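Q: What structure does this chain adopt?
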Amino acid sequence: MRTLKMRACSGAVAVVFVAFSSLASAATIGPAGASFSAPGTINVSTPIAPNVACGITLSGVVASDGTYAQINSVVVTGGGLCGVPQIIGLPWKLVATSTTTGNVANVGFSVLGANCGPSTINGAWSNATNTLSASAQPLTGNCTVNSLSVSPNPAFTVSP
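A:
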């Protein structure tokens, strides 16, 4: 009886481990180990300013094993309130959750005393267009990333 319980328990642990392993290795980002720059656009809403559209450039490095991309620098450009944000929560971490989806953890900024994030935002990835995009992503502090679209250089390839 004791052996039967032990085998059942071992089997359950093995099932959980396999499920976790397949979840943890959902997709990889290439080129592994490469530094990148990802220019694009962002539109955000804060309690102080709704619908602020700016240019944005994310820069960082893809992990040597391709499991994530670390965003070490964020530069926001454009007129008006685009020069005001202070980026918080760096480094941000981009993880490909599948070949067409991903999330960025620690996204945050401060605008004129309004703190937005850090929060995790979810997005879509397209290998065909080399574009990471997101829309309607809430951040703590009653803020929203209305839209985000960036294209990494060198081009990323996300694979299973």
